[in-house]
Amino acid sequence: MANRLPNSNCHENVADSQSDMSSNGSQSFCRQSYYRRSLCRHRFADNHFADSHHYFEDQNLNESAGEHLNEGIKISTTETSHPLDYFEASIDETIANSIVAETNRYQSQNPVGERLNMARWSDTSLSEMYSFLATMMLTGILPKNRIRDYWSTDRLSSTPIFMQIFTRNRFQDLLRFLYFSNNDLVDADRLVKIKPIIMALKSKFSSSVNPGQNLCIDESLMLWKGRLAFKQYIPSKRNRFGMKFFEIVDCQTRLVLDFIIYTGSTTDIGIIPAVGISGSVVMNLMKPYLYKGHNLFVDNWYTSPNLFDLLHRSKTGACGTVRSNRRGLPSLASKMQFRGIHAVNYSWCIAQQFW
Q1: Collapsing DSSP states into helix, strand and coil, what is residue 85?
Q2: Most buried pick, 82, 95, 152, 319, via CB within 10 A?
Q3: Sign, CA torsion 129/130/135/136
Q4: How far is CA 108 from CA 43, 126, 177, 196, in A?
């Protein structure tokens, strides 16, 4: 191809933009101006590639022993460690006590009715809440048609473990009043009812793992067919209906590091015009992991020349499939009419391959 490659002024613009950011009072305006000025218009050629590698700051490596520590998990484990130790890496006593407090508060805010027979209610405790959460996890492993079926005494379908942990009435009472936020605090956020637990989990996820070099960002759909203002329908997903999450995962441990719940137009991702909505999701989730030499893997909804350029400037490698009509990519339709054709185009740090 005869297209000219970007010149060296592209790199100079980055340094100029960074100095502008420190002197300008409007952080949001500076950030958008920085991205607009620093990203070049990509011109692809078939014979030029500025290969470069980013050194990975491996926080899991024990330099004296040359070994990885606990595969990135930041908890001390021994042969006598209990499964509860791993559970508390995500939900510790602070989070559980918060759920206990809000559940008891919510029950006290609702009148005791004869129909609900709530005269039997007694405030829940930390140990009981742990048992309740464990029981809820067990119901996901052993699905049944109705909650009451877990306490069935039918010889063909009985599961005695549930009766040993809770009576059916107590479990249903806890399920009825399970709560995560204070109704006295007014907030227009669509996630207000679960915001405290979401923020606590996000903090625990990111702080309990030292990620490896390779990271992945993708969408996930949590099954939900009930009433929900931001419920999504995605036919290609297994569940089809539910809450959509954008998640960043450590490829080494396969643990979620952070996530964003999609709530429609109110989703707080901080739009970056230069890379669009999908690129803004990536930059939001990757914020703590930039300039550390990570490699990011994404699918074709995220991949774009501008995003990969921006990640490269942030000392982060990126790889992903791409849509043929993505803005900024050259058209290779004429070269790809026959099987077995392999074509590669380059633009500074970006290599585009077709086969």
Answers
A1: helix
A2: 95
A3: positive
A4: 65, 18, 10, 20
Quote the radius of gyration of the chain (alpha carbons, Å): 26
List, in order, residues 6 or more apart from 237 with CB less than 8 Å away: 221
Q: How far apart are CA 307 and CA 72, in angstroms?
A: 27
What does residue 344 show for φ and ψ, rounded to 5 degrees? Answer: -130, 130
**316: β partners:** none
All residues at 6 or more sequence positions from 135 whose CB lies less than 8 Å from its CB, including other chains: 162, 165, 166, 171
Residue 112: CB atoms within 10 Å: 12
Using DSSP bridges, classify how beta strands 67-68 and 214-223 pair: parallel, antiparallel or unpaired. Answer: unpaired
Q: For the chain of 355 residues, list the mean pLDDT of each consecutive stretch of 10.
A: 36 38 43 52 56 71 53 74 85 95 92 63 94 95 94 93 94 94 84 92 90 94 88 85 94 93 89 90 95 94 90 91 78 58 62 65
Contact 222/243 with Cβ under 8 angstroms?
yes
Beta carbons within 10 angstroms of residue 227's beta carbon: 6
